[in-house]
Amino acid sequence: MYRREPVWDRRGRRSPAVTGNGRPMATPRILIVEDERPLADLLAQAFRDEGWEVGTAGDGLACMNQLVALDPDVVIMDVMMPRLDGIDTTRLLRRNPRHARTVVVVLTARVDRATREAALAAGADLVLTKPFDIGQLLESVENLRRERSGAGR
After folding, report:
1. Position 20 in a domain
2. More reliable by pLDDT, 79 or 17
3. The pTM is what?
4. How far apart are CA 23 and CA 26, in angstroms?
5. Helix 86-95, helix 60-70: angle, nearest 10
């Protein structure tokens, strides 16, 4: 079961993303790579609701094509997909200097340690096991993106 829980600031309100000097940030871009269409749609809507520009791909090969068009700040990647799995796709993404610093969050239904270690070794920044809390995913993705953009993408 995937739950949609809002992410609130410390004062109990939503606030727009701003830079350190108080100016609005550029619209963040995310690519959701998931072969289960209902989950991809749910994730896409959740990120759109938070102000993200969203692209989707149904497998690793489509992801590689979308990377050029969208130039995402973040990629959410399923592990088990047709044609090219998420671990191999993450490895390929990391080989491209343009996307070497793109945040990659891997989602997997597999709970074994080997899958988690393989995803991290391929270059994932975070591995989450399905099912997961969407509010927690949104918060984790935003934190990772801010850390990465603060370090100069």
Report:
1. no
2. 79
3. 0.81
4. 10
5. 40
